[in-house]
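Predict the structure of Peroxisomal nicotinamide adenine dinucleotide carrier.
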Amino acid sequence: MSDALICGIAGAGAGIIAQLITYPLDTVNTRQRTDRNSKKMKKTLGTIEHMCQVVKQEGWDRLYGGLAPSLVGTAASQGVYYYFYQILRNRAETDALVRKKNGIGDGSVGMFSSLLVAALSGCVNVLLTNPIWVVVTRMQTHSRKDKDNHPKHEASQDEISVVVEPPPYGTSHTIQEVYGEDGISGFWNGVFPTLFMVSNPSIQFMLYETLLKKIRKRRASSNKGANDVTALEIFLLGAVAKLGATVVTYPLLVIKSRLQAKQDVGADKRHQYKGTLDALMKIIRYEGFHGFYKGMGTKIVQSVLAAAILFMVKEELVRCARWLLTARDVANSIS
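Done. Here is the predicted structure for Peroxisomal nicotinamide adenine dinucleotide carrier.
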């Protein structure tokens, strides 16, 4: 089994675990980002307050709306990202060693190369998995209130009233809705700001790899072993790296979510977006720069916690997989 495949599988598994733990926060944050009312028009709810409101008005299950496609998307995204990231990273490390033999550099991958590797991996991931996240965003922002507002057909025959309920808002219904509105292209709504958002994991991995390399270098110089990095340290490194990346790229996440959420036809034109630039201008005009940071506190908590868990679990899974493969090879050589 190749190192890239191990990292891809480990990344997918770690992503699922992190998603399960932090999903209610993600649902609340998606609703906060897609809230089109200005701060003056509506009181801003805190994370816990917003979560309690969803539970009270719609039930616990709405905090997990879209969980199934989200888990598929998380596994696919993390698997694709880590697979291509490791392949490109291995190529960058090989090139760095070649340059060292030619008297250029110290043989390590530089910050710019790390940023480029993460960006290219992110672009591949976005183009392949964007349709899944369009469906997830729709399901997360769909509320019981939306269902209650759907027209119901009532008929009376022999004093018996028949009420036909609208179909449940599941994954298949959401897919049909997106396709009915915009066709195949609808599944790539928000892809342009999402492509720009590859800078988020790029910044995240650049910070993570830089900090990790410094720790390992320090450990190696102190004779403690270059690979002697604890799970807690990995957790903290992942949290710090994600925090920095989230603060920088959050406005792009808001625009992406607005474009992927259901556009309420017939509603206020100020709240309907034709594209990335239109959304950008309308948010600035009608909500101010505050609109680009709605729910950022929730997102920081959710994304930092998820990233920290992901890095910690992924490293442990990779370590276990390599240990098992080494043990198997030793057993085969003995037999």
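The two ends are 20 Å apart (CA to CA).
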